[in-house]
Batch of 3 targets.
Target 1
Amino acid sequence: MTDPRPAVSGTTRLYVVLGDPVAQVRAPGLLNDLFARTATDAVLVPVHVGPDGLDEVMRGLRRTRNLDGILVTVPHKIDVCRYADELGPAAELAGSANALRRNADGTWRADNFDGAGFVHGLRGHGHDPAGERVALFGAGGAGRALAAALLTSGAARLLLFESDPERRTDLLDRLAAHRPGWARAGADGDLATAGLAVNATPLGMRPEDPLPFDPAHLRADCTVADIVMKPAETALLRAAADSGRPVVPGRSMLDSQVLLYQRFFGLPGGEGHRGNGRLER
């Protein structure tokens, strides 16, 4: 069967995904498969850059004329916002971004689709966060996006567990500006009251990582979600499933974002327009 994807050439448009590490990223497989299926002359490659090199790399990428888009993973989702000329609504609320696109005038727009993808993935597994008390672990780039999406999706309460006091305070202040009293720092005993517990930290990517929290402290019917993509079944999800609690893997969050990326970047299959960060069921 003939591969519909054009060979990489001087006309090929470039996309990158930035992270540290990048071995776990799944975006290249998903987006390059999309490019092949739609015969789009484009390619997405991973770029491994640490925090100390982000400024130099981003300045170079912004000036790369055949680069149309940048995806962002840990630990750069917060810092990357300062390289955007404009922020979309989700990035503005969360203070973090996981995608940047070059506009027609050469400026760059950043937005965040982690939250919309996460909520859509939850609903796809039969777990609507509306009306739930949510225990969220992590206030980094992804955690901020998830908190913002949980707020707009109607979650009843957010209990935030974050060891970095500056990150914790910044996110709580952001959320309070939109819904005062909705979110607060998590405390001992809060896990027993949550209907949804979410790991939005990198813990679980490595075999030696400790659990971000102990599922044994949760209600028996509490849903446990993890945003770690690799491994597909983290130690947290395995422990939760072994205890009989429903689980939602990290893969569902990224799979649900593909259509949003298509719309944001104006790719074939994205209905020909750049969307607003919402993903309907």
Note: The chain has a mean pLDDT of 92.
Target 2
Amino acid sequence: MTPFESPQSTASPSERPADRDTHFEVEQFYYREAGLLDDGRYADWLDLLADDLEYWMPTRTNRLRRQQALSIAARGEAAYYDETKESLAWRIRRFDSGMAWAEDPPSRTRHMVSNVVVHHVDPARTPGSTERDLVVRSAFLVYRNRLERDENVFVGSRTDLLRRTERRFQVARRTILLDQNVLQSKNISTFF
């Protein structure tokens, strides 16, 4: 099982922690990404995503302790997002067209990223990866305000496969796990 098949998994002991410089580079990448999202620069954000992107946010349910393995939807089951780069580009074009009523006027967001843990990928454990790729787990808090009184707070974790290209990192896979299992927001048009 790879870190992307189980949203709650962490890096395995066989995955080597990244050095300090790589860790710093990854954190700066995430801060830049958060700034692009908060500034509504979605086309620029899209450039940070790999062409073969898998962007997945499964739903979760309340379960007894003995059933915790079933609390998070599996691949192919219910998900808030199960996207590709192409489908995210379509969403962004829709925002820009003025036809996304839930985002007109647009939301104001603030993305906070913390608890960043970076490991080198073990290609034997993560199919489709190379030794240059990184598995990164982080925590996030996203605050969203729209109109006068609509406020939402989303809290959770992300597990990413970051691919190092010649110029920069790109997100090749992102698994997002919200801590909430019932969303109080009227819609979910925020990127994580």
Note: Strands lie at 49-58, 79-83, 108-120, 134-146, 150-164, 169-178.
Target 3
Amino acid sequence: MPTHYEGTAREKRSLDLFIKLIRASASVEARTSGPLLASGLTTSQFGALETLYYVGPLPAGRLAEKHLKSPNNFTVVISNLEKRGLVRREKSPHDRRVVMIELTDAGRAAVEETMPAYVRAIADDLDRLSAREQEQLAGLLRKVGRPETGQNP
């Protein structure tokens, strides 16, 4: 559905694109979240586990930053994972003010168990696009997602 906003052509085009981008993201997430729901995990929780699995222990603030979340909001995600025994908080040996988030054995097992089905669900869902279209879209999204380097007129 196009926007009903009464702005310039540029503003209307941009807003329409933004709405489509947000809706597409939410729609793909909803269609592919079955394996996460079956594991009792939210997208944010699984994202945190996956990051720790592949990157290793991280300071809580850095983990939040990697997921484009505020540290205060991501604290809830970390706390819920900790309650389930999937992560643990440890003081950094180098700086006692820094709290490191580490994956537990149970957290590692959750990623290993959930990841294959989740990736299959994503791949199956995105098969509506050809490989070329997926690569084109990935390139465009990368361009949109980069930090600001200049304004286009």
Note: The chain has one domain: 33-144.
